[in-house]
Write a structure and sequence with these properties.
195 residues; 7-stranded antiparallel sheet; 4-stranded antiparallel sheet
């Protein structure tokens, strides 16, 4: 049964694996990306990430981790620098077989837009501008949302959200910076992993 064997191999290739932290280096082989940050950056620890995800990932087997991803969005990495003025957040969501097969990054961005708009409005952001586009990130073309606005005390804030689809999973790489827009500079710290 060649078709079934091929399908199983494809499923094995798409099996979710969370990223790993080693010193100031983040790598995620599933997404095919890495990022090296200098000592100005502070990462959330594995334990803090696990607390955010409400599960201790070290206690879960690969199968249990995949099962936990069935109905949830998983925080995979969070780092900040300059007293929290800049940050990187990576979340990964399992869209499921039905939605994951049919949905591309651009459509997901359309669906995400009202949620993001509400979130920024709820924290008091004014002058909100959200621009969807396609940009090159780690050598590949991806759907991107560039966001700008003003927070309380007239603090300008900028965010770049890059979507990466792998199989039935959608990752959101969110890069935020206050005061000045350095989101493109931070995005350039990411690189494609050799697989």
């Amino acid at each position: 049964n060649c078709v079934a064997a091929g399908t199983m191999e494809a499923a094995a290739e798409e099996a979710f694996r969370p990223g790993e932290m080693n010193g100031g280096v983040y790598t995620n082989e599933f997404l095919g990306i890495g990022c090296t940050l200098d000592s100005n950056w502070t990462y959330l620890t594995d334990e803090e990430i696990a607390e955010l995800n409400r599960s201790t990932t070290e206690q879960l087997s690969d199968e249990e981790m995949r099962a936990a991803m069935e109905d949830a969005s998983l925080q995979d990495m969070f780092a900040q620098a300059d007293g929290g003025l800049v940050n990187i957040s990576i979340t990964i969501e399992n869209l499921g077989v039905l939605h994951g097969t049919a949905m591309d990054e651009a459509r997901f961005l359309e669906i995400l837009r009202p949620t993001v708009e509400t979130a920024f409005t709820d924290i008091g952001m004014t002058g909100l501008v959200m621009e969807a586009s396609t940009e090159t990130f780690v050598g590949e073309s991806h759907a991107v949302m560039n966001i700008s606005g003003t927070l309380e005390a007239d603090v300008p804030f900028y965010q770049k959200v890059v979507l990466i689809k792998r199989g039935t999973y959608m990752a959101s790489v969110s890069i935020g910076s206050a005061m000045e827009n350095i989101t493109a500079d931070i995005a350039a710290l990411f690189y494609k992993l050799d697989t």
